[in-house]
Structures are given as structure tokens and as C-alpha cells.
Amino acid sequence: MDKPRIAVWKFASCDGCQLSLLDCEEELLDIVGAVHIAHFLEASSRVETGPYDISFVEGSITTAADAERIHAIRAASKLLVTIGACATAGGIQALRNTRALGDLVQAVYPVPELIEVLDRSTPIAAHVTVDAELRGCPVSRQQLLEFVAAALAGRKPDLPEVSQCVECKRAGTACVMVANGTPCLGPVTRAGCGNLCPRVGRGCYGCFGPVEGANCVALSEQLDALGLNGHAIAALYRNFNSGAAAFSEEAARHD
């Protein structure tokens, strides 16, 4: 029986999610033995054409060429899985979606006329059908391994669908908002980081994006009670997942 053919693709991003896959180290060797890596330029210069059983896509769509290329990748892939905040929500580069692009280009680049980009940085799902999303900035290596293992076994992957607050409680971590008055996006953020920031006394930065049904309005009321003004509240939501609808809409409400 032929091994499943895997491809990994990059769009506008920092490569951190691809590095998370490479960081699987010993587990990656087991994966390589069970699948055939047909396209993964971060790891090998070998390039094989499709079709592919699974395509993992990192990065957001920011140029017209990107928008064309993702359609070609979708057509060549049985399953298309987006990995990381850039691919699932537009990434940190989606911060420019709230500003006039021309003004930003003029302010940043010495030769603005050479810059050809779309008006907005958008997630992959805004352009093609996506079969699964693995969130995070960067994506969780454990979730990557779980997804591949589940795909090989023909089962549904076991991925977190609860808020960061649930992860804190399971770990016995005291709520930083209640205990210390520290602003935290945990109540509206999907779990998956392993309770990284709250367990060392820092508020959640929302790296894994909004959890389904996130009540950002209620959280903002609590942030206001902590003494944050509208600008500070908006800034909290405008981070790695600023392009996610729940976060972008709540940030705009405080402008």
C-alpha cells in the first residue's frame, strides 16, 4: 500500500509553524517512516508534483500571486490543513487591515511603487475550502503530531475545543485576572498552548485565536473594570490573531 503523500507550503509568514513540525524531532522520524514527504522546502530541496493526500499550509494570502497559487494547491490536495495564526486568521500582518494600505507603504518602504500587495492580509479559508485548522502562534507540535496520527489511523483528531481558562483549571493554575488583576484573553482564547503564560503569572495573549462562542463583550467589561481604557482593550485583541472575526470586531468596538 502506498504511503500517504504529504506536502508543506509557505505563504506570508515567519516560518515558525514549519519549524514546529521540524521540532518534532524523534516523533518526526516515525512520521517520515509512515508517510512520503513530497514537498517541504523548509526540510528538503526535493520537489514532487501532486496530487497530495495532505497539504499543510502556513501563512496568509497577501499578494495576487498568493491568491492564484493557493487555488492550485487546493486542486492538488485531497486534504488541505491550515497551520498557525497566519493561515487561520491572517496573522500579525493582518494588523494592516485596519489602516490605509497606501499610507503604510509610503511610511515603511523607501521605494513604495515596487510594493505590490493586496489591500488585506487574509486567511487561507477566505480563498479556498479548508478541511481542518490547527491554530497557534506558532502551531502546537503536539497538535501536528495528533493530526497526522489521526489521519493515518482514519479517526477524528483529538484537538482542544475549550477556552484557555479550562486548561488553567485542569492544571491547577490560579486565574491571573482574579488573583493579580492581570489583563488576560484566556476566557475567549482556544486552549492548546499547554498553559504557557498563565502558569508563570502572565495573561494569555490569545495565540490560539478565539474559541468558538467567545464572549468578547463580557471579557471587555471585566478589562474595563480592571482600569483599562478603550485603546488598551483594543490593543489586547490586535495581536497574533487580530484578523479573526471575534477579535477584530471587538477591537473595532473600542476604537
Please provide a written account of the structure.
- The protein has 11 helices and 5 strands, in the order βααββαβααβαααααα.
- It has helices at residues 16-22, 26-34, 64-75, 84-89, 101-108, 141-153, 164-171, 176-180, 216-225, 230-237, 245-253, and strands at residues 5-10, 36-40, 52-58, 77-83, 132-134.
- Helix 3 links the parallel strand 3 (52-58) and strand 4.
- The longest helix has 13 residues, at 141-153.
- The mean pLDDT is 93.
CATH topology of the largest domain: the name is: Rossmann fold
CATH class call of the largest domain:
Alpha Beta
Which class do the helix and strand fractions yield? alpha/beta
Element string (H = helix, E = strand): EHHEEHEHHEHHHHHH
Assign the CATH architecture of the largest domain. 3-Layer(aba) Sandwich
Q: What's the helix count?
A: 11
